[in-house]
Give the backbone structure.
Amino acid sequence: MTIQFNDETFRDDYTFRNSDWAIKRFPFPFHEDSYMYSVNMEQHKGGPAGSVYEKRFDVDEHYVSEMRDRAKVLDEDPLRCQSLPHMTLAGWDLLELIMESKSEDYPDLFELHRDGNKWRWINKPLGIDDTFTFLDESTLPYGPMEYITRQAQGDYAVLDQRDDMLWMDAGMITTQADWSLDFDIGMNFFEWHAPVPLAHEKGIFIRALKFLLNVQQGAPARRLNWTMTVNPLLDTSPEHYHKWGIQKTELTAENIGQKQHLRVELQTFFRLPRSNALVFPIRCYLCSFQDLMTMPKWGRRLHRVIRDLPVELATYKGFIDNRPLMIDYLSQFDDGLPTSPGIWPDRETEPPLQK
Amino acid sequence: MSGAEKIAVKVTEITSINDLVTRFRFERVDGGLLPTFSGGAHTVVEMDDDGITRLNPYSLMSDPYDQTSYTISVRRDDEGRGGSLYMHQKVNVGDEMTISYPVNLFSLDLRARKHLFIAGGIGITPFLAQIKQLERFNGHWELHYACRSAALGSYADELTDRHPNEAHVYYDDQSQAIDLANLLDGQPLGTHVYICGPKGMINWVKGTAEDAGWPRDNVHYEEFLAPQPGKPFEVKLAISNKVIQVGENESLLEAIEREGVDAPYLCRGGACGQCETNVIGYDGKFIHRDHWLEDEEHASGQKIMPCVSRFEGKTLVLDR
C-alpha cells in the first residue's frame, strides 16, 4: 500500500494524530492482564501482514514528520548523535542494513542502486537522491550512522561487542524515554541499565546480555517495552525534563483521554556483519488513551495492568502520581469480562464493552 | 532450531596447499551473494559422513568483503574422528553442502592502535581474513607465524611476498622461534595481541603478556578444539526422557542431536558457551576439554559442555 504521510508536530501545538489504520496496528505491549519484566525476546522475522512486525524497519504515516522533529532536536543539541572513532565501520554496516532493508521492503518509497562501491540512494518521501562511495565518509554530508538515521524512524544504539560485553559506543538518540546518550556513551551494558528497578534482582540483565551477545548475523531478534507520556512528545530526554516533566501535572479527568499516551518501543537487535557490532533500534509508537479505548480488549486489559503494576515500576516509569487519575479513567472501559491471550486487538471476536 | 542460519553452497574449487592442508571454495547454490563478515569469523560446515552428521567449525580465510565466495582451509587430522578426513577424501568439486552464516567469536578490537597477530600452524586462517580487512582501511598490523617447516607453512610465502614488512615466519625445523618477550616489550601503547594456534602457544603468549603487565582486555585468543574420540558411554536425557549411547567417534552433542533432541550450539569447539548443560546426577568421571567453564565448575560435577567433553563411568543424567 502507499502510505499517506501526516503533516504533524510532536511539540508545542501537538498536532500528532493516529489514523484508524495506525491505531489498529499499534503494538499494544501486554499479552496478558498483568505485567512484569521478562526477557521477552523473539526472532524478528516478519509478522502478520500490515503489523509493525512485518518489515525489518517499519515505515508508517508519521515518518516524514518524525524526521523533521529529529532534525530540530539535532539543531539544538548535536550531542544526541555521537559515534566513538572505532564505530565508523559499524555506522557503514547500519547504513547498508537500512538501505538494503528499506529498498527491498518498500520499493515504491526507497531505491538503492549499487555499482561496486558507487551507491545511489533515493528516498522519495524525504526527497533525497544522493550518490556516494560506500566506505568513504568524505562522500556523505554526515557520518554514515548519522546520515542514515536522519532518514529512519526510531532511536539507534550501536553497541560494540568486546570481552563478552556490550558497550554503548555510538548512537542516534532523539526519541528516548528519559535516558541520555551523552551520559551513557562508552558505558557497558550493566552500567547503563543500573537505574532500572527490580530487574537486576531477578537476574534479567545477566540473561539478556547472554542472549544479546549471541544474536547472530541473519537472525535478528525483537521485544516490546513501554512507558507513559503526557502529550505526544517524541523527545522526552533528561536534558529537556524541565520542559516536559511539568506537563505531567497538567493532566485532568477531562483531558486525560486525549493527553495521556501509551508509549511503546519496538526494540530490535541485529548483528552487524563487517564490524561484529550489535545495533539496537528502539522504535517509539505513541497512542492516546482515547484511541486505545476504541479496542474493547485493550480497554479491559490496560485498566488491569495499570491498576496492578508494582509501585516501583509505576515510579520508575514516571506515572505514579497520575496513576489514580489513569485508573479512574480506564475503569470506565473495564466491564470485568475475560480477555483473549496475546497482544492483538481481536476486534472481530472480542465483545464490545458491556456497560 | 539451534545454531546459526544456514546457507546452501556448492564446492567450486579444491586446492591442495601442502601435505596436510587443503583449501575449499564455496559459492551459493542459487548464484546469489554471500553475507559479508568480519575478520575472525567462522562457518560451521555440515557433513553427512556415512549416516553421522558432523558439524565442524572452520575459520573463514577469504576477503570479508568478497561476497562471491568463501574459502576455508582444512588440516587433515589422521588421528581425529573423521571430519577433516571426510573433507579431504569425500568432498569433490560440484558437491552441494550446507554451511552456517558467519559467526565471530574472535573479532578485532577496532579501538586498537595496532594489531599484533601470533599464529601457530593452521591457526593462520582467521588472520588471513583479518589482514584483508585491515589492509582495506590502512590498519596497522604485524604478524608472527610459527610453522613446522617450509613445506608445511600454509600461505607463508604469499604472506611474506605481499607483506614483507609486516609478516614474519618462523620454521621449527630450522630452530627459528618467536622472540616473544622482546616482541611484546617493543609494542606501542594501545596494541592488542591476538593468538590462534595450539593450546601451548596460547598459554605461552597469555602468560608472557601477563608477566609483562599487559592489560587482560588487550589479549585475545581463539582455540577451536576438535572433539576427540573416546570410550563409548551411556547418558540419560532427563527432559526428553531418553537413554542414548555416545559412540567412540562421535561427541556427546552429536549423539544428542542424532536422537532428535534439539540442543543449543554455536562454535562446537568448547569456546562459545552456548551448549552448556546442567548435570543432574552422575557416577563416574568427567573428561572436561572445553575452555568455557571455570575450573571450579569443572570440579563441581554440575555442568558439562557436550560439544567437546566426555564421560567415563556408570551413569550420567543430563538436564536436556
About this structure: The domain at 6-103 of chain B is CATH 2.40.30.10 (Elongation Factor Tu (Ef-tu); domain 3). Residues 199-211 of chain B form the longest helix (13 residues). The interface with chain A takes residues 4-5, 35-38, 40-41, 64-65, 101-104, 107, 109-111, 133, 136-137, 217, 266, 272, 274 of chain B (CB under 8 Å). Helices of chain B lie at 83-90, 125-136, 156-162, 180-185, 199-211, 252-258, 295-300.
